[in-house]
Design goal:
heterotrimer; A alpha/beta (618); B alpha+beta (251); C alpha+beta (136); A: 618 residues; alpha/beta; Glutaredoxin; Rossmann fold; 5-stranded mixed sheet; 4-stranded mixed sheet; 25 helices; 19 strands; B: alpha+beta; Ubiquitin-like (UB roll); 7 helices; 11 strands
Chain lengths: 618, 251, 136
């Protein structure tokens, strides 16, 4: 059935009416929950519901996208109460259905607050969710991504209908421009300005491209959105196409995201069938179609010009952007390229107005931003907060702070591998595009990697440079050759072969990377090194001068020794992978230095602070 | 036409014309390694970096590659600022470390006062600086037999999957356009070997001297409409044949 | 304006090959004499008036130009002669193979060479003692 401008409104109301007081059990079937058996849980619950004589009219079973808190998965929620069950196993299906019929909650599956030790029943009362403002993720974890009606019920395509009924392309452009929406992919470029240049540029056809090539290690914002709310992405692209005057679009998804591809394919097919995509959208003159282009998983293909070369079937190498993509992009035609999260914000702006959108956020960064918070935090996951939220709120209030009672926060890396590491004194920095950039880091696409005092900062820099060496496309000299030498120097330092002059070499290589590289990948590749050197220079110097890695990470630069605090509990001896700790119960243990591999397992498990990390010479 | 300033001199240019072309026309020297007039600029070597600014940029300036930066009205281009020279020098140091045996790079490095390179040096046998001239020439002008394969430090120029190419015509354009002579080929008698493939050079139909591979003749024939056999006469015999033709013409 | 042409009078040619030497020195490579772009053929039987001179005729519809994949052969608007724009040449020697008259000459590792009438002042003409070459 193809919808038109006239029939859409009625259809949407009908679908939305279903949600009123809807009785439903949702099972998270995002990539991570699937891996943990989410699909099996769903079918077990299905069977139990049937056994209990509950059919679809009594309770709906929905498979949703990711809730962004994967360590708690598989996640099951019960509506309308908003009951939140965590780490559900197939065996729990019985209890869930039983408590559902009784109208209460299954206590043992509820989340337990680590400080109060109290069980929390509702989704919205859990600090991890309560502190968030989920705009881009509004439908993720709520709708069945494979069911277009579900999305329409939650408001998808309402903005499109509104735009096609009562707005001109210029009107949509103005809304986006006035909302001051900035690109969520990393650059933070003003989306309204980008769209306007593409709209003005002569040329046919014009392209709309959605960048879903999320390559940062530990980042999964875009994947979650594509998997969990594909219609939100499509609607944003259609609105962009309407504003710019395009009728052809691509979603570039990396090969590693098969579920995102599956859901997007389904969404495109369904949207076609309902007249929301393809020729004469909603019965109007406006036509726009979207294809999926799959990337091979090269980090550099997330760079816009390399991405376009990749779609063209050429080697995925960036090229100079002296002529903008809005004039000559894909196939040298005017092209708008934005990130998944940028597009998913567009329907909100069109539906609720630019003023509403711009009320949230900071002066120059409006709206919200989703972050994937990983590393040494209690709750790693996907967290969406208004722009301007401080790093402290994000890491400590929402993500629960640093796990381990003796561990201290050391640094947080924002913006993926080419972002910078910020120290504790920067924790009160409001997170937005400009304040991060001003302090030697960047927003990037929203990766946040939290590190504690057991992370060696030189090793962290070495790790990221190693990643960038592997992922550099190798086209331009500074990035290809400069990074290799940078890695060389950093490796030397972590092996205890560093010299103080190496720090100058690092600065020099960082300069040529920044000044000489062709694309943003190379220009920003110096960030992790430069920022760690700026904020943690002492640690570099300790490595070089004192041959001491105080985090106990660089094997050549540390020794583990047991001190007199040892109670002889034997725990360390049990976890030591090389069995090099000896000692009898209730007596001080000893580490055989000849066999110790400096893995630090003993240090991490010791409850008595009985293990010291010393320099390489003890 | 527009007007811009290069190293203090007002010059005229077409809007969008690349800075390198304008500079060379005006006699301003800008070094390049990956530039070749026959193919589109790539911006890979970064040697042609220059500093540009505009009166309305309030003192802000940026480094750009002259080979592909389009000229605009009132642009102020400076080709030898400290930042430019330093960046070029660093790039040369990186290249020396990659190709310590390359004469060309060593000469350029000397020009930039790079007397004591400090970075760890690679293998002497490596000559390729990955300027991509060969691949652009082959892909855009000939048959596209070679490409950049792998990425990052692993990147190299080769045929797809490093297998023997069936589209290579053995014209040697890649090897001959290489600024550092990094592409090896061998020609002995009637055999020419390049990229692991040996081509038979068709002997001159008159004297038997090697002419060109049949594959190249076929490719040329397709482009020009001449018969394939017409290519199988060596230059000397062709000139002699021309002379004989004149002989038959009555004066 | 009427373009000048390199006129050849083979009946006057003594096959002394001064033209070849002049050409070589007019187009040096690294300071050494290059390949001559003109060729004088002496009559095998030594008959006077039967020698021949072969030099590029700057064809209207030139085979070398249409064979060049790199667009490196251009006609000089001042002289009307076709010349090689070396910056564009990829040295595939397709032009050498294409010229049916043998007037596009290879130079081992260098660019192929052809007569460019020395930019309007041909050296061969000046050095021909027999006035077998005229540029008019």
């Amino acid at each position: 059935m193809k919808l038109t401008l006239d029939t859409f409104h009625k259809f949407q109301k009908e679908q939305a009416a279903r949600l009123e007081g809807r009785k439903a059990i949702t099972v998270c079937c995002g990539t991570s929950c699937r891996a943990k058996g989410g699909l099996d849980v769903a079918s077990a619950i299905q069977t139990k519901l049937k056994d209990a004589g509950l059919d679809e009219n009594a309770v709906e079973l929905t498979q949703t996208g990711c809730h962004g808190w994967c360590e708690m998965g598989p996640i099951v929620t019960v509506e309308p109460e908003g009951t939140f069950y965590q780490q559900v196993k197939v065996e729990d299906a019985d209890a869930i259905v039983a408590s559902y019929t009784k109208g209460n909650a299954e206590e043992k599956l509820l989340y337990r607050d680590p400080t109060t030790r109290q069980r929390v029943a509702s989704y919205h009362a859990i600090p991890f969710y309560a502190g968030q403002t989920r705009w881009a993720l509004r439908n993720v974890g709520r709708v069945d991504p494979a069911n277009i009606n579900d999305s329409i019920a939650r408001g998808s395509y309402v903005a499109l209908n509104r735009a096609l009924t009562s707005m001109t392309p210029e009107g949509v452009l103005n809304e986006v421009a006035e909302a001051k929406l900035r690109g969520r992919g990393g650059g933070g470029f003003d989306a309204g300005r980008k769209w306007r240049s593409a709209a003005k540029a002569p040329g046919f056809p014009k392209y709309i491209i959605c960048n879903g090539d999320e390559g940062d290690p530990g980042a999964f914002m875009d994947r979650t959105i594509m998997e969990g709310d594909p219609h939100g992405v499509l609607e944003g692209m259609i609105l962009a196409a309407f504003a710019v005057g395009s009728n052809q679009g691509y979603i570039y998804v990396r090969q590693e995201y098969p579920l995102a591809v599956e859901h997007l394919r389904q969404a495109i097919k369904d949207a076609h069938a309902m007249g929301l995509l393809g020729d004469n959208i909603l019965g109007t003159e406006f036509s726009f179609d979207v294809r999926i282009a799959r990337g091979g998983g090269a980090f550099v293909c997330g760079e816009s010009s390399a991405l376009m070369r990749s779609i063209e079937g050429k080697v995925g190498e960036p090229r100079a952007k002296y002529v903008h993509a809005t004039d000559k992009g894909l196939n040298d035609k005017p092209t708008v390229l934005n990130n998944v999260e940028t597009y998913v914000n567009v329907p909100l702006i069109v539906e609720k107005g630019s003023q509403w959108f711009a009320n949230t956020g900071t002066d120059k960064s409006k709206g919200t931003k989703a972050f994937s918070v990983v590393g040494k935090v209690l709750h790693s996951g996907l967290i969406e907060v208004p722009m301007g939220t401080t790093l402290r709120e994000l890491i400590f209030d929402i993500a629960g702070g640093i796990p381990g009672k003796n561990r201290q926060f050391k640094a947080v890396q924002t913006g993926g591998p080419s972002g910078g590491c910020l120290p504790e004194k920067m924790l009160d920095l409001p997170v937005d595009f400009d304040s991060l950039a001003d302090n030697g880091s960047m927003m990037g696409s929203g990766g946040l990697i939290v590190m504690d005092d057991r992370n060696c900062i030189v090793d962290v820099a070495r790790y990221f440079v190693h990643f960038l060496v592997e992922e550099s496309c190798g086209k331009c000299v500074p990035c290809r050759e400069g990074l290799r030498h940078l890695l060389d120097v950093l490796e030397r330092i972590t092996q205890g072969k560093g010299k103080m002059s190496d720090l100058d070499t690092i600065e020099r290589l960082c300069d040529v990377l920044e000044n000489g590289s062709l694309c943003a990948l190379g220009k920003s590749a110096a960030n992790p090194v430069r920022s760690t050197l700026r904020y943690f220079r002492k640690e570099y110097e300790e490595h070089i001068n004192e041959h001491f890695c105080k985090a106990g990470v660089c094997p050549a630069l540390c020794t583990y020794k047991i001190n007199d605090q040892c109670t002889g509990c034997t725990l360390c001896a049990k976890v030591c992978p090389t069995h090099c700790i000896s000692g009898s119960r209730k007596e001080k243990h000893v580490i055989d230095q000849a066999k110790c591999i400096q893995c630090g397992s003993c240090f991490d498990v010791c409850n008595f602070n009985a293990i010291d990390i010393l320099g390489s010479n003890g | 036409m527009i007007e811009l300033t290069i190293d203090g001199k007002r010059v005229q240019a077409r809007k969008g014309e690349h800075l390198l072309a304008i500079a060379r026309r005006e006699g301003v020297e800008i070094p390049t390694l990956c530039h070749h007039e026959a193919v589109e600029p790539s911006g890979a070597c970064r040697m042609c970096m220059v500093e540009v600014t505009r009166p309305d940029w309030e003192g802000w300036s940026k480094l750009v590659t002259a080979c592909n930066f389009p000229a605009e009205e009132d642009l102020i281009v400076r080709t030898r600022t400290d930042k430019v020279m330093q960046t070029r020098k660093e790039i040369l140091e990186l290249l020396i470390a990659r190709t310590p045996g390359s004469q060309l790079i060593a000469e350029m490095a000397r020009e930039y006062g790079l007397d004591h390179p400090t970075l760890t040096v690679g293998e002497l046998s490596e000559k390729c600086i990955l300027c991509d001239i060969c691949t652009r020439v082959c892909q855009n002008l000939v048959t596209g037999a070679i490409s950049r394969i792998n990425r990052g430090v692993e990147k190299e120029v080769n045929t797809p999957f490093a297998e023997v190419s069936d589209v290579c015509i053995g014209c040697l354009a890649c090897a001959k356009s290489c600024p550092t002579d990094a592409i090896e080929f061998k020609q002995v008698g009637l055999e020419r070997t390049i990229w692991g493939r040996t081509f038979d050079l068709v002997p001159c139909t008159q004297c038997g001297a090697p002419t060109l591979p049949k594959e190249q003749a076929e490719w040329l024939s397709e482009r020009t409409g001449m018969k394939v056999e017409e290519y199988f006469v060596c230059v000397k015999c062709k000139a002699a044949q021309t002379a004989r033709t004149y002989e038959n013409i009555a004066w | 304006m009427e373009k000048k042409l390199l006129h050849v009078y083979p009946q006057r040619c003594t096959a002394c090959r001064n033209c070849e030497i002049a050409c070589s020195f007019a187009h040096p490579i690294d300071g050494k004499a290059g390949v001559a772009r003109i060729k004088a053929f002496g009559d095998k039987e030594g008959r006077v008036g039967h020698n021949q001179i072969v030099v590029c005729m700057q064809c209207e519809d030139a085979a070398c130009v249409s064979a060049c994949p790199a667009n490196a052969l251009w006609r000089n608007p001042d002289t009307g002669a076709i010349y090689l724009l070396e910056e564009r040449c990829i040295r595939c020697h397709s032009c050498v193979a294409a010229c049916p008259f043998g007037n596009m000459r290879p130079q081992a590792d260098e660019f192929p060479s052809k007569c460019d009438v020395c930019g309007g002042d041909p050296a061969c003409v000046k050095f021909c003692p027999a006035n077998a070459l005229e540029y008019k």
